Amino acid sequence: RDDLDAYYKLGNDIDMSGYSWQTIGSESNPFTGSLYGNGHIIFNWDFILNSNIQNKAWGLFHTISDAEIKDIGFEIGTIDGSGCTTHNNVQQLGILSSSAISSVIDSCYITVDNYISVPEISNPSYLIIFGLILLGSNSEISNCYMIWNDAFDYPYNGAYGFGLFGSLGGSATINNCYCDLVSFGYKYAQNYAGLAGISGASNAHVSNSITISDMYTSNNLPSDNQFTTGIIGGTRNSDNTNVWYNADMIGAPSGGTTTNRFGAPTPNYNQQSFYQNTLGWDFANTWYWDDAENL
Fold first, then answer.
1. Where are the beta strands (DSSP E) in 152-272?
2. Residue 216, phi then psi, degrees to nearest 5
3. What are the beta bridge partners of residue 83?
4. 0.70 exceeded by pTM
5. pLDDT tens, position by position, 266-284
6. 54, 152, 210, 273: least CB-packed within 10 angstroms?
7. Is the distance from CB of 69 to CB of 103 less than 8 angstroms?
8. How many helices (H) and strands (E) does the chain have?
């Protein structure tokens, strides 16, 4: 915790049950070293968001800069937003880090089993951002994935960003990644996405990646609805190379640059050959295919 530029390697899985975590580093004193997970996971990790702290929760690190994080999984039990009772709530959570600056994240994943929604109050407005990295700037995510297993149906006004990068700032790269966000829906949606969420990035690059989410929005979207998408929300200048989405679930994504992104039906995504031949993923050294569970 006090040696932020060193190399670390996990020797075991870490059970976070009942443990109150204190994030490592700070914005002014970021982690600049390397963390090799060695295939281990951090599991049973719960996050409670409430109005008193403006609902910004820190993950493993506060900020990483010129850092390398590799081969570690985060299995989240519950993200609880039920304590958010004010009208203008901000829920922000980066599981690995709240901010990644000029860093490399490779062969990592996040799963979320349970989300407890904010309570229904009058005229709410929300900014809700979740991701492996809350804000990524000039950073790269490769060979990573995010699976959100709980339904998330939001009837409220607000801006929402979900993905490996919850929010993008500056240039960022997403390569050989996928997101599976189960049963997402919105009546009011702005900047919602699958691989990355709210984005002000001017030159984000996404390649050989896919959103296989069961996502939808209400058929009665308001006129000010913006950037509802299955890839990156709100990015007008994303540079896409061989990026795919589930046409059975999402339909043609809106927002961002529309070139080099393709839709295909569900059966394509249940075959190893699609990921190996179409996306060029390495199943000899990086990815594993289970015929029962797919990826």
1. 152-154, 157-168, 173-175, 178-181, 184-186, 196-199, 205-211, 232-233, 239-246, 261-264
2. -160, 165
3. 50
4. yes
5. 778 888 999 999 999 999 9
6. 273
7. yes
8. 1, 24
